[in-house]
Amino acid sequence: MEYSLNEIQQVGKFILSKAQHQALLFYGEMGVGKTTLIKVIVQLLGSSDQVSSPTFSLVNEYHYPHGKIFHFDLYRIKQEEEVADIGFEDYFYEAKDWQFIEWPEMIPNLLPEEHTAVHVELLASGKRKINLVDS
Hints:
29% strand; alpha/beta; single chain; Rossmann fold; 3 helices
């Protein structure tokens, strides 16, 4: 699916309607709009929390009417062991909670088995291309 930034609300709705899991892994180059897309999805879930990239804290927690949303940004991770220090795997035990993970390729051995991969690509036209893959 291709989209422009002014269509991002529809893309967020598309992801929520098609994702088979609450662990969403966001793949894409720096600046492709992963965090912007996550902001939209958090709002669509009904959260009024301010969404920002957790690059330095590794994880931000947001609240929505049905539970919590955990937003991870793993860009700065050098070794998988670094996320063990924040209890990364504990975040996946609560089935009702959403997990949005940017830069999941940094921790390939620690990812939840059941997840939806969201691949975002910037096209030469300036539009984005999105592809969802459920595990």
